[in-house]
Amino acid sequence: xxxxxxxxxxxxxxxxxxxxxxANQDAVHIFSNVYVAPDSTVHDAVCIFCNVNVEGEVQGDVxxxxxxxxxxxxxxxDVxxxxxxxxxxxxxxxxxxxxxxxGLVRLxxxxxxxxxxxxxxxxxxxxxxxxxxxxxxxxxAIILSAPTIFLVLIVILIVREYRAYRRRQYxxxxxxxxRG
Length: 180
Known about the structure:
single chain; alpha/beta; seven-stranded parallel β-sheet; six-stranded parallel β-sheet; 27% helix; 33% strand; flat
């Protein structure tokens, strides 16, 4: 009993001493789209199960999980989309990295990406006028799906042949009446 009281008091002391997190300039949403107006600025834009539409400026990172990211003007740091897509209008600027995993990337004319552009297991539509500061990495989804499709076809073939073998055994044991 005394041990439980001591643990409760210790837990209360840790909870009271916790430093609160402040997100005054951040836009963090779940199941609700993030919209940055053309004349406004936010620090970070984070969205889970929703979309981020940036027509103004994001001074920090833009992150979307299970949603799309649209950059019309400028993002000062990284743009990340997981299980969604990334699109950037003509003359848009992404000063950091642009990462898309399992999503479609559509970039307009004269889009500039300051560091790396990574598109894993998705499709990239980018004109030749797009400038990327460092590395450009794109791995299409067929790289992931081809071995999976191959294994599924092997399993289907094995099951089909096993069923045909069992069917032949069944009919071999069954005596058909003589033809008359």
